[in-house]
Write a structure and sequence with these properties.
The complex is a heterodimer of chains A (109) and B (114). Chain A has no helices and 11 strands. Chain B has no helices and 12 strands. Classes of the chains: A mainly beta (109), B mainly beta (114).
Chain lengths: 109, 114
C-alpha cells in the first residue's frame, strides 16, 4: 500500500515561532500534494496545495516546500498564532488521495 | 459555499446492528468519498464514487458497503456493526473529474458500537 509518512505526531511551538511539519511519499506518480487543517469537532479543510512542477508555494503565513528528488514536502507556518492550533494532515495522490497520520499542533500563547 | 451535511453527528449502536450513515452535498459535485478517522491512523479511504450508481473500493472497504442513488447523496452502510468499527466517519465531495481536487468534508459522524 502506498504511504505518506508524516512527522512529528505532535508539536508545541511558542507564539510567533515557526511551525514545521514534514511528509514523505513513495509513489513518484503522485502529482498533487495538499495540506488539510482540522479543528476539533470539524471536518478537515484544505489549507494549501502544491503540484510537483514548483518547489515552493506561499499563501500568507503558510508555505509548502517541495523536494521532488527526495520525495519530501513540508508545511511551514510563519509567525505561528494560537488560532493555528489544530491537527494538520499532509496528503498525496494522483487518482486517489492518501493522507498522512496527522500532526497535532499546539501554539503556546 | 459548498456544504457537505452528515445527518448524524453521534450514533451509538449495538454489535450486529445494521447502520446507515447519510451524507448530502449541495454543490452538484461528481465525486463523493467516505473516510474513517482514528487517532494515530489519520484518514483512511473506505469507498468513493465518481458518479451516480458507481462505486469504487478504497483502502479499507471490508465490513462496509455504499449506495449512491442520487448525485447529491452518498450513504455508508455497515451491514453488521462490530466494535472495531467504532470511529469517526467523514464524508467528502469534490468537483474535479479526478480525485486530485479540493475535498470538502462534512463535520463527521462519531459512531460507537457497543
Amino acid at each position: 500500500q502506498q504511504q505518506v509518512k508524516q512527522s512529528p505526531q505532535s508539536l508545541i511551538v511558542q507564539k510567533g515561532g515557526i511551525s514545521i511539519i514534514n511528509c514523505a511519499y513513495e509513489n513518484t506518480a503522485f502529482d498533487y500534494f495538499p495540506w488539510y487543517q482540522q479543528f476539533p469537532g470539524k471536518g478537515p479543510a484544505l489549507l494549501i496545495a502544491i503540484r510537483p512542477d514548483v518547489s515552493e508555494k506561499k499563501e500568507g503565513r503558510f508555505t509548502i516546500s517541495f523536494n521532488k528528488s527526495a520525495k519530501q514536502f513540508s508545511l511551514h507556518i510563519m509567525d505561528s498564532q494560537p488560532g493555528d492550533s489544530a491537527t494538520y494532515f499532509c496528503a498525496a495522490g494522483d487518482d486517489k488521495i492518501i493522507f498522512g497520520k496527522g500532526t497535532r499542533l499546539h501554539i503556546l500563547p | 459555499d459548498v456544504k457537505v451535511t452528515q445527518s448524524s453527528r453521534y450514533l451509538v449502536k449495538r454489535t450486529g446492528e445494521k447502520v446507515f450513515l447519510e451524507c448530502v452535498q449541495d454543490m452538484d459535485h461528481e465525486n463523493m468519498f467516505w473516510y474513517r478517522q482514528d487517532p494515530g491512523l489519520g484518514l483512511r479511504l473506505i469507498y468513493f464514487s465518481y458518479d451516480v450508481k458507481m462505486k469504487e473500493k478504497g483502502d479499507i472497504p471490508e465490513g462496509y458497503s455504499v449506495s449512491r442513488e442520487k448525485k447529491e447523496r452518498f450513504s455508508l452502510i455497515l451491514e453488521s456493526a462490530s466494535t472495531n468499527q467504532t470511529s469517526m466517519y467523514l464524508c467528502a465531495s469534490s468537483l474535479l473529474s479526478r480525485v486530485t481536487g479540493e475535498l470538502f468534508f462534512g463535520e463527521g459522524s462519531r459512531l460507537t458500537v457497543l
